[in-house]
Amino acid sequence: MIFGRVKSLDAILATAEKKSLHRSLGAFQLTMLGIGAVIGTGIFVLTAEAAQKAGPGMMISFIIAGFVCAFAALCYAEMASMVPVSGSAYTYSYAVMGELIAWMVGWALILEYAVAAGAVSVGWSGYVVGLIEHSFGLDIPAKFVLGPFDGGMINLPAMFIAGLVTLLLVIGTRESATVNALLVVIKVAALTLFIILAVPVMNMDNFEPFAPLGFAGIGAAAASIFFAYVGFDAVSTAAEETKNPQRNMPIGLIGSLAICTIFYLLVAAGVIGSVGAQPVGNGLEPGSRELAAACGAIGDQAVVCSKEALAWTLREIGWPQIGNLIGLAAGLALPSVILMMMFGQTRIFFVMSRDGLLPQAFSKIHPKFNTPHVITIITGIAVALFAAFFPVGQLANISNSGTLFAFAAVSIAVMVIRRTDPGRHRPFRTPAIYLTAPIAILGCLYLFFNLDQKSINLFLIWAAIGLIVYFAYSRSRSHVGRGHVEVHETDADAPPQPVPPAPSLGKD
Question: How far is CA 421 from each of CA 1, 416, 418, rounded to the nearest angstrom?
Fold first, then answer.
């Protein structure tokens, strides 16, 4: 039966009860946490992709993506407050809808984290290569800094940063909360500086035509831009530490998403108004050889051709040194995002392995470094290969497909558990659940089907592989299937670490 083998919610919660946290976060702290988690990678690297799909209409795309995120966040928050152990949507699904759905959600999260880490690695490469070229007057051959779809051969800088982060995770080096906060400040300061310099020189003529490829282009851009919002789950999972969560969680979630949306709209307006953002070549696919050729024909004199859109824009409007500073800010801040994504990936693998659904070797801990080195190295190799050969937009879209599936599953789970376990204590209750959850599900479906066909096909292939693995290997080895009920003395979310994890920067 599809909803069989439910993992006992009481067994999961027994873990959480051993680590009751002090309720100290108010609405303001939650909002700041959300802004830090959300703002970052997406706006730095996907602005050019969005412009190629929607032109100036990408401003509507940001609003659509933020709207869907807000409804999904409210559903996520109820589950996070009820099941305050990690494992994210995988754990929630296991407790509510059974092992098969949980497996598919976990399998989708594997796709989300690893591919997203690859996307951020490619974004980092674009900014750092641009910084080096403009600061030192070098001309680095494109074949070594771009993948084959982008007109190059291999993206070596992206491989390098993925490898470096893997090494850091294996030896157990983790950024502190202080460093984390500093990097958030750097990201926000860089975007604020961009807005201050770009918005005043806007030319309203650059907003025409507003939607050169129609609403279909705006929808496609929204599906890509969704990548720029993910990270709000950092707020959702803080429910356990929140004072008056029923009041403060919605303020923190909606407040942080609203502020991030305003930030993104101002950045988009600055790009569009100052240098224009019309698609090149009648809407050629971002990250394609055809677009690379079209950009080469015009000397890369369009923001949609840039791998470092914000830095490129500032150089074009007469601020070359500030443009280099934006590149430096991205170079400093983005590796921490890769680290948190790869840590999230190994955490999901670790929990699935401990549930018996993946080989036990995946949860093996290094005797010296006390980290899950086997799965970290496997993840690192996969991320490096993604980063080496695929364009950032394609990776972001593939990652979004996994994220949207997981969020839709959580939204369904919230409605299911309201029916199956109405008396369960809920520190936070999703308002108007039978309106909010269906809107979140429909929004996720809308964005999913606005992804490019290649990403949808890859997700379906990945899902099919997941089903084969489940029925050929995992189902017969599942601890729940064998009747093992486990209560872990330590938090179920992560491999043993000498230092507790810093708040996630998200994959923004």
Answer: 20, 8, 6
Tens of pLDDT, residue by residue over 442-477, are: 999 999 999 999 999 999 999 999 999 999 999 988
Of the chain, the end-to-end C-alpha distance in Å amounts to 37
Secondary structure (3-state) at 11 = helix
Residue at 26 is within a domain: no
Radius of gyration of the chain (CA): 22
Q: Between the CA of residue 12 and those of 21, 424, 479, 496, what are the distances in Å?
A: 16, 14, 14, 18
* 64 belongs to a structural domain: yes
On whether residue 29 sits in a domain, the answer given is no
In total, how many domains does the chain have?
A: 1
Q: Residue 339 is encoded by which pair of tokens?
A: 């680290």
Q: With a threshold of 0.85, does the pTM exceed it?
A: yes
User: Which of 3-12, 287-296, 456-465 is the most confident on average?
Assistant: 456-465
> Which pair of tokens denotes residue 152?
């190059």
Report the CATH number that the domain containing residue 94 is assigned in CATH. 1.20.1740.10
Q: pLDDT by residue (tens digit) across 347-366?
A: 788 888 888 888 888 878 88
DSSP assignment, residue 152? Answer: S
Instruction: Give the structural domain span for 396.
Output: 38-477
Match 């976990």 to its residue by tokens: 106
Count Cβ atoms below 10 Å from residue 23 Cβ, excluding itself: 15
Euclidean distance between CA atoms 53 and 282, whole angstroms: 10
Residue 381 has pLDDT above 70, yes or no: yes
Task: Measure the CA–CA gap between 222 and 220, rounded to whole angstroms.
Answer: 5
From CA 314, how far away is CA 126, in angstroms rounded?
15
Picking from 30, 178, 89, the residue whose alpha carbon sits closest to that of residue 499 is 178
In a domain, 488, yes or no: no
Angle at 141 between CA 383 and CA 299, to 5 degrees: 105
Would you mind telling me the total number of residues written for the chain in this entry? Answer: 508
CA distance 222 to 450: 8
Residue 255 structure tokens: 């407040």
